[in-house]
Design brief:
174 residues, mainly alpha, Arc Repressor Mutant, subunit A, two-stranded antiparallel sheet, WH_DNA-bd_sf, Regulator
Length: 174
């Protein structure tokens, strides 16, 4: 699948949103967020960012509200959490963007690194099923591993590139 560069940039902007990264990884690490507890769970994020990212994550089928359980990850959300973890491991291994960086920064900078690169997806269909690991032959910021993993995930979950407005910037700091 070839992804138009404007759509790839929009997807990267959305996926590198600090609020989205925090939401996905919080649920992945700690389980569903109980009803009406999102603001308590992520208290450092403004309420309007939480409402917006909650809405967008639902529209893009990354999270769902499960009755009696709360906000939980969908299959695509679980696989995105795996992508985030793998990208953060690659970035930490390569000391990118700096030797000491937080999880969210590592993901954001690495995703932005792959945005201008050609968008030809690999043949594999699922990051979790295939057990993909990011491995690069040379140190530095060669983004071939993260790029392949991102494109593989986008190929499996095309709703992200189809539903996004290429002219909107989703990655603003929260």
């Amino acid at each position: 699948m070839n992804i138009p560069s404007a759509n790839l940039r929009a997807a990267v902007d959305f996926l590198s949103s600090p609020a989205l990264i925090r939401l996905i990884t919080e649920i992945d690490d700690n389980g569903p967020i109980p009803p009406r507890k999102l603001a308590n769970t992520l208290p450092d994020l403004p309420a309007h960012h939480l409402r917006r990212i909650n809405h967008l994550a639902r529209v893009h089928d990354l999270v769902r509200a499960a009755p009696g359980v709360g906000l939980e990850l969908t299959t695509s959300g679980v696989e995105l959490a795996d992508v985030y973890d793998a990208i953060a491991r690659w970035a930490r291994h390569h000391a990118y963007p700096t030797r000491v960086s937080d999880f969210t920064s590592r993901i954001r900078y690495t995703l932005r690194l792959v945005a201008p690169l050609p968008a030809t997806a690999p043949a594999e269909s699922s990051t979790r099923q295939q057990g993909v690991e990011l491995v690069d032959a040379e140190p530095g910021v060669d983004p071939s591993g993260p790029r392949a993993l991102l494109l593989q995930w986008l190929n499996t979950h095309p709703q992200i590139t189809v539903l996004l407005d290429p002219d909107h910037e989703y990655g603003r700091a929260a």
